[in-house]
Amino acid sequence: MMDKELLAAHVEEVLREAGFSTSDRCYLRPRSFDLAARRDDQFLFLKILSNIDGLNERTALEIRRLAKHLLASPILVGEKTRDQYLERGAVYFRYGIPTLSLFTLADCLLEGALPLVYAAHGGLYVRIDGDRMRQIRLARGISLGALATELGVSRRTISKYEVEDMDTSVDVALKLEEIFNEELIEPVDPFQTEAVAEVKGPVTDNILRLLLEIGFEVVPTAQAPFNAITREGKLVVLTGVGKFSQSIIKKARLMSSLSSVARTKSVVIVDGETKLECIEETALIEKRELEDIDETRDFEDLVAEKKSK
Question: Which domains does the chain have, with CATH numbers?
Fold first, then answer.
């Protein structure tokens, strides 16, 4: 089994070959995700683990929240679950995050070949195009009972395939395609994910509360290389806070790389003084400067001013 660093290097290689621009790898701890990548309007947040069972629910929730607010697709790339290697061409799920092997990721991004199978409790399953199956069955004059007998299932099961889009086993799906001599299996798109239900908690950081008072929506983070996503209308800002230090400089550089891929602004609000206006693409704003701002437009103008110097 590859270690995480080698697996991450292979993931970056696949992404570059597929035409994605990638952020620097997140090296600051704690970290919820490892990499951001974009190809045109396709934006991915990737977590990379050799054994996917290492992802916990808290981290998964943070990745999904970040993806929701930055219009990204969260993806977990791994090699094994328990003692089993991930199947090529199958999508797994960990706390709502689509999970792929390196080879499945490459098939999706390089070949445009979406998986046909997903893993759930009890084994591997596929999705049947129930409406198309029903249309073909009726056009050929095949009764529910006759089809059920040939498949060895109940009439109710056939009805559920057609009306309720009930998923089925790989064996049954392949037998259906053989009976009708038509493609009925629908691919699973791991990049189309359900939004996470979110309960907003209070913003407790004093500096982030200043942004609230100015009129921003503030989404605090717990494990990201920035402290919050700050937004108002089309303005989205990756926001860091802290006293000026070497660690803040490292954070600002990583935030610059992430904001470039995410197509956002990035700002570090310094609790104290700094002689620097900008670190790469990240503007540095002193807390006292923030205290003099009353409107979001003034904040945006200040960020632009810092970056122009």
Answer: 4-115 (3.40.1350.10), 124-186 (1.10.260.40), 206-308 (3.40.1350)
